[in-house]
Design a protein that fits this description.
73 residues, mainly alpha, 1 helix
């Protein structure tokens, strides 16, 4: 191998390493963003489940009151 070939191979390898570093950074950023989205969605889901449970309790209470009124009528 002559010196220009080795130099060209090193240059090509360095370019590939630079591209891999950039891809790695982009994937880290994307991963961070996805984790934040997941945390937000998990929080929203928890809030919705709480609201759903509250609504279910209220509906059950209304049904029980209606049954009580029906029995007293």
């Amino acid at each position: 191998m002559n010196s220009p070939d080795v130099h060209q191979q090193i240059k090509a390898l360095a370019e590939r390493v630079d591209r891999l570093i950039e891809v790695s950074r982009r994937l880290q950023d994307e991963n961070r963003s996805l984790r934040q989205s997941q945390e937000q969605l998990t929080s929203e889901r928890s809030q919705l489940m709480s609201k759903n449970e509250l609504a279910r309790s209220r509906v059950e209470a209304m049904i029980n009151r209606l049954k009580s009124l029906e029995q007293n009528a």
